[in-house]
Amino acid sequence: MVLEAETIFIVDLLAIFAIYVIVNLSLNMEFGYTGIPNFGKVLAVGAGAFVAASIPGRIFASIAGIEGDYITDNLLIVSQINLWLVDNVGIGFVVFFLTLGIAAGVGGGIGLLTSYPAIRLRGDYLAITLLAFGESIRIIGNNYTPLVGGTLGVQVPDPLSFLPNELRFPIATIGLVAIAAVIYVYSERMIRSPLGRMLRAVRDNEVAAEALGKNSMQIRIKVIMISAALAAIGGALYAFYVGGTIAFAYDRASWTFWPFLMILIGGLANNKGVLIGTLVFVTLRKFIIFFKDSLEGFVPFDVIWLDFLLLGAILLAILLYRPQGIFVEKPTPTLANKTDEEQSKMRKIFNLFFK
């Protein structure tokens, strides 16, 4: 069975949408709810992708007894690993989820490292500092060959290699959408908790929050760490989905400025807006990529720049005419604390019998 072009288009669109939803929810947590302008988002995403490119392949090769230099002989080794995974599906999934956990840990560690400027800097100064951090990941990946093969990149083992080719991408897309849904629920529950109110308080008036006894420095560090861990998971999933990693693919336009554009389209501090903004952006860009060649000769510039020009024009239009985005931030009711309710019930039972 061969998939139709329309089916491939939709499957790929949903997969990229799910990955960007994960990255954008993490950015919305930082920028939308806490007011931290993280212009170095690519750092955590790239770190997750580099983990997926460098760790699971070596684990699989070690378990399967495949010898050779993982970087120099990468294509041959990964091909042998994919054949081995056909008969070892369970190990493939265990290592896959282990890789996501390692990526989250590495992302959180990088978030802790980059959070130190966030303690002292604010506004433009913080944004520029984080932007410089973000640039470092691509330079390291390009120049430190043992990590992801330098400028040539590496292939990533496919845990779904046991599936027929026509089912591999649809099944992978279903998995990506499921993981994105879990992260969305987590983000929604977090912002509806007392922590979510605290994030807004720090964003709106940090001095007032501190006057009420809130430790804004600690909150900013935690948020940067958590969002970096989520973004790293998104980067690792992207590496698994495309089947390879190359350092120059993790540039600030794709993994920092576009996520900012998506959450601006949907609306800051609104997770539903993040979903809509991401869907609008990803769909529009996919259409541009698919049909821009047909416009060659009709536009006075190279069509390769068409998506950058159109998306830049959209950003300007939003900032001028709809700066709050499609969905405006609304007050979110705090979810009941079940632990407190359970403790209250236990206290009533205790009072009934012993008082």
TrEMBL record:
Keywords: Cell membrane, Membrane, Transmembrane, Transmembrane helix
Principal localisation: membrane
One Pfam family linked to the record: BPD_transp_2
Transmembrane segments: 6-27, 39-66, 89-113, 125-147, 167-187, 223-241, 303-321
GO cellular component, one term: plasma membrane
InterPro entries: ABC_transp_permease (IPR001851), LivM-like (IPR043428)
Subcellular location: Cell membrane
Molecular function terms from GO: branched-chain amino acid transmembrane transporter activity
Membrane topology of the entry: Multi-pass membrane protein
Protein name: Branched-chain amino acid ABC transporter permease
Protein's organism: Nitrosopumilus ureiphilus
